[in-house]
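The instructor's notes for this session suggest beginning with a concrete chain rather than abstract definitions. Hand out the sequence below and ask the class to guess, before any prediction is shown, which regions might be ordered.
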Amino acid sequence: MSILHSFWSAKCAKMSRVVAVTDVLEQKELALHPVHIPRPTVGIRWVATSELPDPAPFFEGGEVLLTTGLQTTEWRNEWQQYVDSLVDAGTVAIGMATGLTYTRSPDELVAACRQAGLNLFEVPRRTPFVAVSHTISRLLAEEEEAGAREALAVQRKLTAAAAKPNPARTVSQVLADALGGATAVLTTDGRVQLEPIGRRSGELDLSELASELRRMHLRGSRSAATVTNPQGTTLLQPIGVSRPRSRVLVALGPPRLTEAQRSAVTTAVALLSLIAEQQQHSAATYRRLRRRAVDLLVTGDGHTAELLLQTEPTPRALPTSLRLVLAAGPGPQIEDTVTALEDRYIVVAESDTQLCVVAPNTRAAEIAAYLAEAGMRVGTGSAVDAEHASESYRTAGLALAQASPTTPVVEWEHILRQGPLGLIDTASAQRFAASFLGSLDPEQVETLRCFLRHHGSRQKVAEELGLHRNTVRNRLDAIAAELPGPLDDPQIRASAWIALQATP
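After discussion, reveal the predicted structure:
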């Protein structure tokens, strides 16, 4: 029957650190003799003693099999199947006792191990199997202790990094060093928040992780992912305390992470989550200050607005020449857009359905186009200095009122070129024209148009239309009777001109 040491079942099964085959062979007190060692660095997780003809079904992987070959004395061709079965079960080495059943390892066993690539060493008669077990136990304990010391040292480095300037980047760098790999931070939709850092940063292809991010999103905000290939293991861990979590730590390490490295990832995630939470609260505070600064700016107190903007860690200055840009859209669009603009150090304030950008005059068109691409309606105000920001705010509001899905960006200068009609949407202008001119026949409409074109000169109207002055006077009197007031009234003339311009 198979005897599997209970000590290894309890202790080794929970260890992720390993002892290599070569570490055991180097223990001189055991006097082990290497016969065929093609994989000297493969890790040992278990020690088993068995005389079964096929012990593989009882193994879980990572075992060293110690045997005397008691039931194999008649074997010839059976060795290859024996070895292949052990390799399939994940066995890392065979330790064949010598001086008992065999004086040396059978040639057929050696040949089978060579063909299968399985480590084979000999255990001399003076070395009991239990001594091999105890030695590996000691080595594993030392590895575990070393791993604990390493994990503690990395934790201390990570904690110290969190207290330094730019803590997220510093913590990510320390983690990348601990993994001997690379780290990065992404948003849950794949946008890069922190570029890859570390000696293997060139191997971290963030575009390949898009499918994993989508799967994580579908599984929920607490889900994580692991991508393993021969080059290494890439861990994706959500960052944050609040829900939903908006960022993901990407960590590239060796194919098999040590316990200390896994502990480092866990610690880094916790620290980055706290840093993100602190940054979120800080960002909310400074966003409220910016909102107040914009309120002060548009009400004429640019000096106080400038002082508020100077309180930020990276002070923001009001442009010498500026334009107020107003944009309207759904709440989620506004939130995402505000974050993107703030990352560019642009002064912006938001409400539930509208945001206000203090844009440098030279960048107003660019910012307006960006907002339109985000699916928002945009109005750009007049170019002013900070002292007259209220005027730009007012004109931006008038421009925004004219924006539509088909014309998402409207500039104040465009409205100026259009005249008063630029402030009235087409449908409203046509309704006004129909109401104002509806009682006039075509001949009267043409006479009114000519009258306004010649600035009220009846003589020029008579000349253009080929009529007598008395006829013109009579027509104009009839027209005035149908209008809300006399044609000598500037307001009536202006209304008549607008109505004529809006007539199809």
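Then share the key points. The mean pLDDT is 84. The CA atoms of residues 186 and 192 lie 5 Å apart.
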